[in-house]
Each structure stands twice: as C-alpha cells, then as structure tokens.
Amino acid sequence: MLVQNDGAPTGSGKRGAGSTAGGGGKRRRSDGPATSYEDLLGQGGCCLVSGRDGHEYEVEDPRKLRRLLEQRLTLNAELRSSFLEGLQEQLDDAAVLHAALRPMAVTGGAPITGDSFIRVLLNVTALQAEVSGLLLQRLPEFNDAEGEEAPLPALILGQFRWLDHVADPQALNERLLEVLAVCPEHVRRDAITFLPEVATEDKYDAVIDALEGMMGEDGACVLPCIEAFANLCLTTEQQRRVVETVLERLQSAEAEDLPAVARFLLQFAAPGACLNSVVTSLRQSLHFVCASDPRIAVPDRKGKAAVPAEGEGHPEQRMLEALRQAMQLSPAAGDAVVRELRSLQEPEAHRIVDFWLLMALLTLGTERKKAAEAVLQRKFAEGHAQPAWMQKSIAGHERAMLDFFPQLLALAQLLLRSGKEPVREAGAALYCCLFQHFTQHYNQQEVLRTLHSHLGAQVPAEASAALGVLVALARQHTAQLMRYAAFLTNILDYIDGYTDQQVHQVFVVFGELVAGACQAADSGSSGGTGGRSRMEDELMIFVRKQLSSAQGRHRRIGIIGSVALVQRLGAADSSALESESAMGARYREAMTALKDTFDSCKNSPEAFAFLCDELSRSIQRKAIGRRLMGDLHALVACYLEDTFCCFFEEGVPLGPGEKAAQVGMRRLPAELWWNLDGSSTPCALRMLPLLAEELAPGSKSAPLLALFATMRLTALLEEEKAGNLEGVVALLGCPLSLFEQVLASPQQFGQLPPEERRCVLLGLWYALNWCHELVNCFATELTPAGDATGDQTIALKLLGRLRCCCQLEALLDTLLQFAPPLFALPPLGSALDSSPGGLAAGAAAAAPKKAAAKGGKKKGVKFASEDNASDGAGGGESGPAGSGAATSQRTQRTTSGTVSGGAVTQSGAGAAAQAVSAAAAGGSGRIAAERGKQRSLMLPALRVLGVGAAAAQEQPCYAMLPSAAYILADLHGKLKLVLASSKRPSFLGRGRRQQLPPDLADLTPTELLAALAPVLPCIRRHLDAGFNALDQELDEGSMEQHDSDNFWSLVASGSQAEQIQAVADAGLAPLDIPAARAALSPMAAASRVRTLVFDCVRQLLLWPGLSEAGNRPVLRALLAAFHKSGPQAEWDVMQAIKTCATHFMAQLPAMGSDQPTTDSPSHQHACLVILDALATLLDRLNSTGGLWRRTLQLQRVWQRGVRITCAAEAVLQQACLDEDGKDTGGAAWKGRGPLLADVLRLYLCHRQSRGDSVAGVLQAVLDVASDSLTQVTERTTGKDAAEPVEPFPSLSGATLSVWYRVCFEQLQVAFERAVESATGLEKLQGAKMAEAGREVLEPIQMGMKPHRSRPHMQSAAAAFLALLNVIKGQPYRVPLHVQAMKSGGKFLETLLRVLPFWARLFTQPQHQTAFRAMVKDVQMGTRTLQALCSEGKYHKAMAVTSRVPALKRTVERFVFSIKVFLTGAGGGGGIKALLSTLKNRDLAGRDVSSQYVEEDEDMEGEEDGEYDEEMGETQCSEG
Question: What is the pLDDT of residues 829-853, one digit of tens each?
C-alpha cells in the first residue's frame, strides 16, 4: 500500500507494492502483470513509499527478498516475464528509478547491507540479464545531470560493480558496447571506465577495438579509455597494441590529459624495445617553453583569472608527479629512462623533460638516486651536458620545480663536492640558478645555508667553487644578496685556512656588497643609512686587525683585503669618486687606509713586497681604474729611486758613502758589475750598502726583499700612464753596486769569514732576481720576433741580462757548498709566506733521498752530452720552472699520458722529465733546490727567444744559445706543470695552483700556448744552431768569429752602431771566474737546447688538448716550426706531421748500425716518444673516411709501426760511450729503468706480423723471452751482473727486471685484445659465427695459416711459458719472482674469461687440438708458479709469500674450470693425460719437505679467514 510518511492513505503518488492505482501511474487490471510484481514484492516485505523528500524503497530483510525472488522466478518463466513487465512499468518514472538505485531502508531487524532495490534484482540470476538490459537502455536518456545529488548514469553503472556473480558476462559486455555509441559524452566517460569490470578476457579484443575507435573520434575519451586499458588484464601482445595506440594519440592529447597519458605509457609499456620507444617518444614529444617564450601565458598580476579547483595543481606539477609515479610503479621504466639518458652524448640533445625525469628519479629511493646522480656527474664530467641545460629546465618552471627544491639543493651540493672541475662548475651554476629563480626568503636562505657547508671544506677546490658562487651572486644579484649580508661575515671565520686565491674571492664578495650599498645610497634606496651597514664596519675592523698583526699570514690577508676594496671602489666613474657621494666617500676612506698600509709596510720589506705584487697583479688583470692608477703612481713614484738607486755625479761613479760598506769586521769596497750603458749610465743599483744594512748586528730589516716587487709595480704604472717605459729604461742597463768580483771565485770565497760569505751569497742571489725582474718588465717592449718596438738596444740589453742570469746561477751553484752553517737563501717569490709556493719547491732534494732509500747510492754513467750540460752548473736552466729536478715526484708522474699501444707510461714520463732536468740543471743541483724561492719569469720573457733568431737571419748566432737554454728550461717547467694539471686533477682536487708561484697561479694552458706559438719558429732556429755546433764540433773561438762576421756586424751597422756595439760587448763579456765562463759556453748550451726542445715538443704532442679545435693554431705553428718550408698559408697537416717525424727519426740510430753513440739515452727516448706521439696524432686526425681510406690508413699505420719498432730496436742495440769514449756496456741504462721501459714498449707494441699487431707482439715477446732473457746471468753482484747480452747492450742483470716486467705487460695487453675479440664473437649465432670465422675468427683460433704463424692464444700460452721458464734460471732475483706471480695470476684470470668461446668450438677436432696445446703450455707454466710459491715460503721471502694465497686460489680455479670444461665438452677422457698430480718442488726441481711457515697477522695481501697453507703438499692437480 502506498502511504505517506505519516501513515495516512493517499490517492496520489507513485506505484507501490500493494496499490492498484496511483496519481502518478497508470490504472491496471487486478489480474495484470503488476499484480504478480506487487504480490511478489509484498511477499518479500518490500514496498515503495513516498514522502516529502521523494520516493524510497523499504524492505524488511534484503536477503529474504532475494531468496524469495530466486525461488519463485528461477523455474517459472511466465511469472518471471510478468514480474519484469511490472518492473519496467514502475521504473518508467525517473523519480522511481532514482529511488530504486539508492540504498533501501531496512524496516525489520535485519542487518543493513546498503544494497539498492536494483542491486538486489541484479544479484538474482534469473533476472540479471533482463534487468541489466533494461538499465543500460535507459543510459542514453540522461543528457543533463546537473542539479542532482548523484547523476543517474553513475548510479546505474554503480549497480553493476562488485556483483556476487555475472550470469552472462558476454551478453552484458555486448549490450554495454552497443549503448556506448549513443550515450552522451559524460555518460560515455563513466561507462568506459566501467568496462573492465564486466568484460571477459575473450572479449578484450572487441573492447580494445571499441575503445580505439572512441579515442580516434573524441579526444575527451582518451583519459577514460586509458583508465580502462590500465584495469584490463591484457596479454603481452594486447598490451603492446594498446601502448602503441595510446602512443599514437600522444601528440593530439589535450594538455590536461598529458600527465595521465605519460604515466600510462611509462607504467604499462613492456620492457624492451617497446619501453625504449616510449621513453624516446616522450622525450621528443613533451615540449616545455622557457620563461622567454612569447607563447607563454601572461602572469595574472591583478588576480582576475579563474580560481583553480581544490586539488587541481599546475599542469607541469601534475606531469612531474605522473612521471614519478610511473617510474615508482614500474621499475623497468626507471631503468629504461636511465639507459636512455645515459646514452645522450651531445649537449644539444638534452631536453627539459630529461632533467625532470632525473629529478623524479632522485625521489625514488637510494638506488635510483645514486643512478641519477651518477648519470648527471658523468654527463658534466665528460662534457655531454652543459649547465645551461639545468638552468633552462628551472627558469620559467619554478612552480613545478618547487616540490623538488630539496632534491635540487642536494644535487647542487653533490656536484660542487666533485673532484672534477666541469662537475663543480655545473654545481656552481645550479646554486646560482636556485638563488635567482626561487626568490622566497626561505629558499634563498636555504641556498646560502647549504653553500655555507662548502666554505670550510678541507678540499681547496670545493671551497674555491663555493666562493666562486658567492662572487657570481654578489656581481649579478647584489641587491638580493645584500639582504643576507649580516650572515656572510661568518666567512671570515674560515679565512685563515684559505689560499691567496680564495682570500681574493672572499674580499671580492664583500667589495661588491660595499659598492652595491654605496650605489643604493646614491640612488636614494638605502633608507637613509648612507650606504653603511654593520657588515661594512665588521669588515673594516677585520682588515685593520689583520694589517696590524705581527704574523705574515695575517698581514697577507689584510693586504689582499685592503687592495680588493680599493680596487672595487676605484672602478667607479671618476666623477662619482670626486663628488660627495657615498661611493666617493668610501673610496677616499679606502684610499686613506691604503696609504696607511703603504707607510706601515715600509718598515717590513716582506709586507711591502707582497703589497706591490698584489697591486701589480691587479694592474695586469686590468682591474684598476684610471683614477686609482693615478693615485697609485703618485704614491710609489719616487720610492724606487730614493731607496735603491744611487746617482752618479759628473766624473764620479760612486759617492763617498757608496764606495765601501761595513760587513762584519771590515769594510768591503764596492765594484760596479755589468754596466751595459757604459759612461752614459746615470745611476747604479746600491746593493752593497743595503746588504750591509741587512747583515748589520741586530738588524731586522732586509730592504732588498722589496726591490723586485717595487720594480715590477713601478714599471707597470709607468707603462699604464705613459704608454712606454722611457721613465725607467735607465734601470735596464745600469750597473749593480756589489762587492769585488774576486770574492765570488771559489778559492777566495772559501777563505772569507761567515758574514762576508753571507754577503756574497745574498748579493749574487739578489742580483739574479733583479735580472729576472728586468727581463719581466722590459720583455713587453719586444715583438715575438725579438725586435724592440723602440730602441734596438733593449733587445741586446735583455740578452745581456739573461747571460748575467746564467753566470749568477753558476756561481751560486758553485759557492753554496761553502755556505756558512744554517744559511738559507731568502724566498723572494712569496716573501710574506712561511711556505713558499714556487714551482715544486724542495722536490729536487727529495729525489736523491728516494734513490738512496731504494738502493743506496747509485752512480750512473756520465755521457758527453750530459757532461756539456754539467759544465755550466745549470746556469742556462734556471727560472722557477727551470728544471724538472725541482719538481715533485707526484708532478713527474702526471707529466704525460699514455701513448698509442701503451708505449709510454706516466712513470716513464716522470723519469724522462727527471733525466731532462738532470741534463739541464747540471752538476750537483744545489741551485735547483732554491728555484722555488726565485722571482718567476713571466710569459713575455719568451719573446727574448727571438733575439738572434729572426726569420730574415740566414746564419745562426751561437752567442744566443746560453740565454735560449735558460728560457727554454723555464718553459719546460711551465709546460710540465700547466699541461699535466689540465690532463688529470690531482688528489682530492688539489690542483697545480699549489705548485705554481702566485704570479702564475692563474696560468691556463690556453694562455701559455698563446704566448708560445709565436716563438716556435725562433725555438727551431736555436735548435738548428745547437745542431750545427754539435755536428761540426766547433770551438768557442770559431763560434765567436762566426757571430762577429755574420751577426754583430749586421746589428751594429745602423746609425747607433757605436752604442749598439758597446752594449753588445758589455753583455757578452763574462766574469773572470771559471764557473761563470763555463756557464756561457755555446757548446754546453747547444746540448741543453737540444734536450729541452725535444722534451718540450714531447710534452706538447702528448697533451690531449693539442688536437682540439681551439688549439689547432698552436698545432699548426708547432708543425710549421719543423716543416721544411716553414709556415705557409695553406699546407697539408698530414704532410707536416710526416716531415716532423722525419726530422726526429734522423736523430735516432739506423737499423743495423754498429756505430756507438755518446748521446744520452734520455735524448733518444724523447725522440722515440715524439715519433709515437706524432703517429698517434696522425691517426686521430685521419680517423674518419670510407672503407678504402681506412684500408689505406691501416697500411700506413703498419708502416709507421715498423719504423718505430726498427728505431726502438736500434736504440736498444746501440752501444753507448761515456765521456772518455769507453764502451759502458750494460751500465749505460743503469738508473734509467723507466726510460728503458718506454723504449722496450715501443719496440714490442708496434711489432706486426703481416699486418696482425696481436700476432706481432706475441711473437716478439716469445722471441725476447726465449732468445735473450734466458742468457742473462743469475749473478746479482759483481762485474758479471752488468755484462750485456748480445745483441742488446741494454739487457743485463741490472736491467733484467725492467725487460721482464715490460714483456709480461705487453703479453697481457695482446692477450686481452685477443680475448676481447673472442668474447665479442661469442654472441654470434650459427651462420653469422661461421661467416665471421672466415674473416675474424680464424686468426683468433688458428692464426693466419699453420705454416705462416702460430695461433694467437697458443702463441700467448707459449710466450707465457717462456717467460716463466726465465725464472728457473734466476733463483736469486726476488723482484722477478714477484712480477711472475703478479702477472701470472692475471694471465690465468684472463684465460678463464675465454672458456665459453672455446666451448662453442670444441666440437671440431682441429679446435680440440689447439685448445689442448694451449692448456698444456699454460699447465707447465703453472708448475713454475707453484714452485715459486713453495720456494718463497721455504725461504720466508715476504714479498713472495704475501702473494701466495691469491695466486693459489687463481690456480685452483683454473684447474677446476678446465676439468669442468673438458667434462662438459665431452673431452673428459683426456683430463687425466692433460692434468697431472703436482709435487712440492723448488725452482731447481728439488722436493720441498714442507711449505709451512708461521702465521703472520701482518702479512701483506693475506685474506680474511683461514687458508690451507699446506695445499701444495696435497695431491692437487694443476693445469
């Protein structure tokens, strides 16, 4: 009965279970369908009631109603049909349908299930199909769902979810698909998402077809279709099809749908090619505009845009979140993304989405984070990506990146801590980008807080990079950084541990902030503070405190700070500095402070010198404004003249107070040294009076310490003001007022009192550095060709000053051995620092100590060429970088890299540099240990090489050779440090800046090569002059006459002939001391020039950056210098390289020549390395081309390899003579192990057998091991130990260890190449492998032909056995035993890698024979290794026993692996014959009773856990 809520009967309303009629329904007969429908519902306790709130179904118990309907309708088709008719009539009303779709009200005591009336009917199996069809047919009727609590389509579809069962899912699926075509858009979207719940697996194809059609017709269906696809359990093929379909719609998808599309593609793409294709497509299709793109929306600054719905994020944010979720749910997607991004190697190929993907990976756990960080670090380290990529990915996308701000900050911190400079640069750029684009106070404070963690780092490179970030922020974002200026003063707490360069960076930051505050005050935006802040007050207090300190380190900081502040403030416009503005007031205050600093530093020469040097570096960097330049010139204009110069009166060279000085107990008379201007000189350098003042009892002043820095600053200021050096040119030729020259002779010097000896040594030391500074200042007046821009006499005076340097170094080297006790030369390069930073100071003294520690005192053979170098006592090899003997061992190891074929190692390069240094420095090298304290020669000094080597000069000038050798030695040291540091960073980021002096701390390879390139032709002419002198064996008289006829007469032929001739005579005149005259010997200098030029060329060619595009001009200049016709406009680089190779090949002995040589092995080594470097360079430049060109290139490589091999063999076979012309035998190479190793590597690695390099190397190693190494005597002492072996004089007992090590190393290299080729072919299948076998596989397996060459691997095994057989004849050489164990174990491990390759070939009989022959040789070698283990343990040789456990484990693995291989390959029957029992025997074959040694916990190489030390006594079978 239809009732109202109050229970009163009503005649209106909707149909009820017990009503016959109603106002809202049709009248029915009492025996119609409704009767059956209403009766059944009434029996089930269900009725439809109506009230004020609408209609509602009530039921006593839903379960009872369901059971009743199942019982009555399952078998009664007529009743079921009548029930359905009544149901359809009742549900025609939309309001009743809505009530039927809502949960029913339970009126009885039954539990509430929440089921609706329709859901109860759907759970009845007999009614499910008809009721579902009835409901689905009603879906197209509802076009507008607005205003309803729950839209009817959603309620209808909701009834089908989570049904207990589906009677006919196929029919339901078909009906739903039919209805979708006519449903409204909003209904269709809901229906599509419902499909996966009703579709059966056999209908998935139909569902996919339908959804694909809807995706193509309506773009609004893309998102629900993707959701439906994601909920289907598809097969692999169906999933691939779906992914391809969605991928096709990627370009046309709406922007709002892109996050879901991207998430689906990444999450559901099958691993492999499909997933890789998806990742590639996403990278290419997802485009994001940058902040400057005109298509980007204009910011809504007025707030008129629509307010986004709650929970609706920015599209870019949703895209990032979608990508992150996809990679989190699908690990394969993350792997594919990492692989794809890792493969990108071009900076232009990187997109914004790539960086976003990496950011998403950073949030997905530790493993993903490490992988993403590794990818980023590698990209920046190898140049595959640039910092601009990160900046582009962040700029304009700050809202999306804000969620990843912690990850970005952690990434910047990681990159800045890297040991590689490109990675640190990327980290610095990321810090700047974060500070610039995330402008909230919290974000910027976090950036500064994280950046602060780097400032106290113990790694200088990290702290420098962090300070560089602050410098960039201070210059580019001054106003923003000023808000946090109070926090930046904490940097001053770390400044005591900073280097000078880092201190500069600190004060640059503060200088920019102070200048920015002044500019803000002048513009009126400072709030009335006048631009002064608390930070500025603290800074000035700190600087004054440092300046007043008595410690030199603190005074350095104060000087740097005051100069930096004045420099920044003085960079402003002159009008601003002169006005009453805040900037002008600060500048005047800073200038007053600088004047006070000048006055206070005059009492401390060390501090004054550092102040002058600091100002000089600022002027050279063009960092000082014109106003400040003028103020500085007025400040120091007269100081140099008043303090250090004495002026001559008419006819009186020296005044009464300058003629003598009190030193010790007597007055030393003064004498003028090296007066290049003659009688026209106006002044002299008063060095003797100042020396006397320094050595006076109780004196703490050393005025001459400030002389050199003052001279440099004065010259720079004069040049900047006047444009030339006319105002100070008199100092270039003025004499030096010193003691009498006779006091510098060794005989007289040894008899002087200690104070006078100190005076002589200090005088020579100061005079040497004065000449250095004159060359630095006036070399700028020369062109690269050596011509003076003004007066021709300047070039000759510079030549004279360099010759003075040669003589002074020779005198110092001779006299330092007679120095008074505790005497030390003062450091002049960095006088205010307690640890002078010269070019590797002190390392020259370390080298002899190391040699003595290794083997006691070693006396090598002295060659004629080295004797010539020694005669000058190193006079021509000075300069801070003048000699490799003054470099540390660590620097020597980083001097040069690897040459093709592994020919040259770093240790060999270090030894080469050491040998060159020995040849350059000469005798004892006492002065070499002091070169770190000298004033550095600057790059303009290279121009002096053009004096006497002009292009128009037809004849050589031999008088220029000593000065040329002097500058070349300095250049050699600079190349060694600068190029080596650019190739490989040193440990923990500590670069070459600690080894270079402050003047050269910023020197880069580009700057050095730019200064070197113009003078390369001059260097070649000096080299030719040296060769002429050596080849013609000219005496000094002949060379002087030659120069007088062909050079000096031409130079002095102009209008100033007399003046030029006088300058030349004064510059060429040597001191009347034997050591000084020997230092100017052209013959000795010729040998040094040749050695140094060759090693400089070697360093240039071995530098990897030489072939880069930016350094091609230097390469062309270098090749042109050794080209026959010299530099031309256009010429073939390849032909120039070949010409250079011909030039250096001529310096080596011819193959088969029995002519002995007096050349040093280091000279021949340099020529060989240059040849190999030229060959490598030629291959690098000729690496592209077609098949014909590559074939021709291989032929040329083979020809060049043959030439280098022959040259190296000739060097190894050439007899060497000492200075007396006696054959030195094997002693010639004693102490030159690294050089010999390089020559031997070149001999072996370029060997080829009919174009097969692997076979050639293996055969060469086998021949050397079998024919030569076995002939070396087993004696380790006595004369017999040094006896050479025919036909190699370089092979003897003293060099056997070098030969043995190099042979084993080259064997391992060649064997690994064969194994890599084999393992690469292992992946081929069937016919492909057979096809490859005809071309590539056959040489690897069987060699070219049995009668032509041995198989590769069999040759390697034979060479392995031959090398181990050498050990049997050397029972007392423990280094050989250690090398055999080390290399033998590595050989066995490499052999195990190739067993899978042999397993595929073992079915063929010929391959079985080859394999058994190879294993037989290796097994015999392992017997020797086992004997080494037994003998080493028996004799308790710790160097051997420490390697025994690891070697025995390797041998066991080899034995067991061979057994398993033969058993699995069907050859198990031959195991017993192939592998036999091994007894414990020593190298002589005698049985060893026991191998037991006491356990030693400190034994090197011992592994954790117990190891069977008695393994050799068991019946262990070995291969």
Answer: 776 754 433 333 333 333 333 333 3
